[in-house]
Amino acid sequence: MIALKSMSFKIDLASIQSILLQANLLTGVFQPCDVGLQRVFKHIIWQKASEFFIGEVRDQLASGVSASEIKTSATLALLRNQTAYWVRTAVDYLNSQPALVHKAWKNCTTGMALGSGGMALNLSYESLSKPSNIGLLMGKSEE
Q: Do residues 36 and 62 share a domain?
């Protein structure tokens, strides 16, 4: 059995260039934030922004301003402060959902079956820490 902490890797310049070239082709496939987190993150920000501006309009209507006279503020100072709150709300939500983050890593798959098990390699801890997958990652055949 191969232990992760005892592995040593030899990387040369050609390998690094190959990895960088392939990484550009994998955007949205092998990057956890692209695969499973950005849509949720952006949706929460959109929800909070909508709630803020709807609240602004409601407050003005409640104070007697006619619908044609309603104006919402979009000053840099106001939006800067509100944006920080919206982003923090989204970050807090993602931090409270470890299963969602784990699923994003798990959904980053090679898309092809590797090894005799026929399972696609993914970026989850469970997948990368299997002894058979460690061997595959290090270029060794399964025994």
A: yes
Q: Give the pLDDT score at 125.
A: 79
Alpha-carbon span 90 to 39, nearest angstrom: 11
Tokens 């695969």, residue? 35
Question: Are residues 75 and 136 both part of a single domain?
Answer: no
- Cβ proximity of 94 and 101 under 8 Å: yes
pLDDT tens-digit series, residues 76-119: 888 888 999 999 999 999 999 989 888 888 887 766 555 556 66
The parent domain of residue 52 ranges over 32-107
93 and 117 co-located in one domain:
no
Residue 24 placed within a domain: no
User: pTM for the complete prediction?
Assistant: 0.63
- Residue 37 is given by DSSP the state I
